[in-house]
Amino acid sequence: MRVTKDLVAASATPIVLGILAEGESYGYAILRRISDLSGGELDWTEGFLYPLLHRLERLGHVEASWQTVTGERRRKYYRITKQGLAELAEQRHQWTTVVEALQQIWPQTLPLEGTA
Amino acid sequence: MTVTNGPDELESQFAQWREYVRRRPELIASDADELEDHLRDSVDELTALGLRPDEAFLIAVKRMGGLDDLSREFAREHSERLWKQLMFLGDSGDTATKATLRRDLIAMLVCAAGAALSIKVPALFGQHFDDEGTFYETNVALFTLPWLAGFLAWRRRAGLRLCAVLVALFALGVAGANFYPVADDSQSVNLIGSHLPIALWFVVGLAYVSDEVRSSRRRMDFIRFSGEWFVYLVLIALGGGVLIVFLTSTFDAIGLGADDFITYWLVPCGGMAAVVVAGWLVEAKQGVIENIAPVLTRLFTPLFAVVLLAFLVATGLTHGGIDVERENLVMFDLLLAIVLGLLLYSISARNPLAPRGTFDVLQLVLVVSALVIDALVLLTMTGRIAEYGTTPNNTAALGENIVLLANLAWAAWLLFSFVRRRAGFPAIERWQTTYLPVFAVWMWVVVLVLPPVFNFR
């Protein structure tokens, strides 16, 4: 199964903000986390992730800084801001509404393709 | 690691990849750092799985997706980067370039201040703008062009010998402008006033090409520099005009006259400084912003070609020939100079390897019509000289027309051969760069030789 482009685009911001809400992180680790969370189903490219991170930074949802953690390379770490947390809460609210609505109209009997 | 030179080889691969990334205008240095870090993580993970470093590198790069796609995505987010910005102190880029930019900026400020103050120095000795006499008319270029040349020579780290030559030439200019016993209403004084700035501009050119005087490429760069410099100067002058309008009206509104300040300080000092600032701008923005002079050339070459052709047709129909008034002849000289300018800039902007196109034919039309007009002007001028005898003015004009005629004739021939696929484009380029000293020499002759020859008439 592949998640469609539209859905990936719509869910990208809350996913990244959600991961950063767990603690600051950097690009490569964020990609790995997304892959783990979705069991490999969400396969983001670098060309998708980095511009997104930069946009979130521009909007003020995240802050970035170059840091050197002992024993590692100098890296650009991203940290969620207060504003980002508010945005995450807002997006979460919207997603919950959508998911609840979907759950009500989906008949329980509808078979779920691809999972068995 | 199974391969002995694995780490070194890997590092050089990273370096290559980085250089490749940095060529993309959409990706700035910190993006390259970030992506490189990502790539390294990816390689580390793959080598941990047992792959050889070079294999890991290949796979990691492949996974990263094509740089085209990556750049496109970055461009979508950072569209402002495609508007190439002139960073005065470069908020991107490495510390070395930043330091260079800062040093340049300081040197420019010193030179611009020097130029601005220079024009006020004569006032200390009782020489004012509104005084009688032609002191400022003949000396104006000497207040600012040495500073511009100094800035360029400093930037090129010109050798002592070149610096000595520059100083000597400017001293020659000072001598030409001030030591001849020319009357204020003589033709000689006007010739010095109009030709000395151009003669000195070639000295600036010498500072520009610095130790590569013989290099055709560097001379072509100087032609580009001149065109861009002129465009910037005009832009600065326009901005200055707007500033003056606001200064005048806002101070008028509170009952203070700013006229004296504008006339005696803002215009002269600003004008002198602007010459240096424009030169610095051209240097600072090299490769950052597309050159504008060639674009203007492309726009105006067809228009001028049409005007010249129309003029020739009209002359042919009326059989009138050219009116022998002096003002008209000066106008034609200017017209021919503009044609030459258009030709030079389109040459400087043209990719020498590009195939022949309509534009080259248009240029040929322009040059040939200019050539015919030049011949007509020369004919009229000879008649005038036969009638009135030689004067400093018509000798200077005659010389200029002959110099131009020779240039245009050979340029037309080369363009013709080029359009007919008989010769390459570089020949045209070489001809124009080789010819530059001829212009310079004639300008100096007008300034230094003609006045004594005509007894300072």
UniProtKB/TrEMBL annotation, chain A:
Any Pfam family the entry gives: PadR
Positions of the Transcription regulator PadR N-terminal domain: 16-90
Protein's recorded name: Helix-turn-helix transcriptional regulator
UniProtKB/TrEMBL annotation, chain B:
Keyword annotations from UniProtKB, A to Z: Membrane, Transmembrane, Transmembrane helix
Segments passing through the bilayer: 105-123, 135-154, 161-180, 192-209, 229-249, 261-283, 295-317, 329-349, 361-382, 402-419, 431-454
Keyword Lipid metabolism on entry: no
InterPro entries documented for this protein: Perm_prefix_1
Region forming the signal peptide: none
Protein name: Permease prefix domain 1-containing protein
Species of provenance: Actinoplanes oblitus
Taxonomic path: Bacteria, Bacillati, Actinomycetota, Actinomycetes, Micromonosporales
